């Protein structure tokens, strides 16, 4: 995979999407998991934007991420709130736990970082194998419209120290056969008008059709697939929805 959150990318992510910021997903996952009796896993846990509120709600949740920088933000936030969380550096393709989980969640479209269809199928099977019987998998995906919008945006954030962080997003490739987009994300750190550091992330994502992903879940061994739009459980996705959530169960 091309994607890795380095120092500047993680810093920008944490400024833009801090713990406590919800897009409707924090409330959605808290509600969907309120009756779960057992441990929960969040792959690609990031800075803990979802994990920390769920810990505070009393859920037994742990997570992994491939980025040491993102895990550092998550650990710091847990420490500030006196929360204990199992956090490890692992990757989608070879993560391993002795525990069998009551639920596995992947909010915010993180599954789309897996851009090869065969690899994605293998990860779904790995999720299935790490669930206890009747365990649930909940995954959010962005619809195709989120991939094919305008390119070339520039965003900026001011730090507490008065520095400036900028992100320039330029899509350089759209592969309609592989269902992927490749963007160049340039992160820059400015101090007193001088550029002190820059990072270039080759950011690749894959989009899925609703029926396509439902079939992929079934092929991985899941049943009772439910699809919802815009964090309204039970409401079928509609044109214009910003997010599509899939929930399935291990038999």
Automatic annotation (TrEMBL):
Keywords: Methyltransferase, Transferase. It comes from the Bacteria. Residues 40-135 form the Methyltransferase domain. Pfam families: Methyltransf_25 (PF13649). GO terms for biological process: methylation. GO terms for molecular function: methyltransferase activity. InterPro entries: Methyltransf_25, SAM-dependent_MTases_sf. The keyword Signal does not apply. This is Methyltransferase domain-containing protein. It comes from Rhodopseudomonas pseudopalustris.
